Amino acid sequence: MAVKDYIRQRFFPHMWCQGCGHGIVLNSLLRAVEELGMSKNEIVMVSGIGCSSRISGYVDFHSLHTLHGRALAFATGVKMSKPELNVIVPMGDGDALAIGGNHFIHAARRNIAMTAIVMNNRIYGMTGGQYSPLSGFGKLATTAPFGNIDHDFDIAKLAIAAGASFVARTTTYHVQQATKIIKQAVMHEGFSVVEILSQCPTYYGRKNKLGDAAEMMEWFKNNTTPIGSKAKEENPGLIERGIFIQEDRPEYCDEYDKIVEKAQGGRV
Questions:
Q1: Structural domains in the chain plus CATH codes
Q2: Which of 111, 143, 161, 181 has its CA 20 to 30 A from that of 193?
Q3: Which CA distances in Å does 260 have to 75, 80, 257, 268?
Q4: 252-264 and 71-81 helices, crossing angle to 10°
Q5: What is the pTM of this model?
Q6: In 227-265, which positions are buried (b, 16+ CB within 10 angstroms) versus exposed (e)?
Q7: DSSP 69
Q8: How many CB atoms lie within 10 A of CB 20?
Q9: 29: closest CA among 86, 112, 81, 76?
Q10: pLDDT digits (tens, 9 = 90+) for 136-148
Q11: Residue 54: how many CA atoms within 13 Å on its side-chain side?
């Protein structure tokens, strides 16, 4: 199948602002699915509420557009009932780490086989540019006109600490890397977290005087480096990208099946 075959073309043009990075994420996701040769019936996409969550409306997969912050809870139900399906959960700052933070850490802890794609644009874009758990100390937002005093999460460190068995980070500038990482995440048998730094020129970029979309993507190019590079040693402020962890661990659905088998066999 071609990339265009995975799109619900009747819902285009999309609702994202000009220059938004989420369309680039959608492109990388579709290319990953195409390269894996998956049929549309093998995939379920579950999303909550927000700019990033609109992706589920644009793909011609089985999809659920659910409650804000609860996408991983719904996705867990889908995976438990149909473990043979590939479940992909596109999320933003709030869905993943604010209202959805509890679901995030427990999905990671259980190591249930699904792929969480966290689009980190450091702002709540759909509802007017409020600061998020990822905005960062001192950054400006509509709800922080004098500067944000909350410190941000490191998504990769949080995911690893919570027990995710695949954790990676890339950016919308590094589109080929994004496609490659998403492919690996989808095929991984465990909870996969892919953080993608994504530009929001409308709210985050404008408020913090970071320029237009091209300039924000240039920032991703100049301020990130591959994991373990010498550049990181020389400049600790650089953001690392690549795969932080990829481990084989017992997967939740497989272990649940073993419990069912024991119960049906009458063994304690």
A1: 3-264 (3.40.50.970)
A2: 143
A3: 21, 12, 5, 11
A4: 50
A5: 0.94
A6: eeeeebeeeeebeebbbbeeeeeebbbeeeeeeeeeeee
A7: T
A8: 23
A9: 86
A10: 999 999 999 999 9
A11: 17
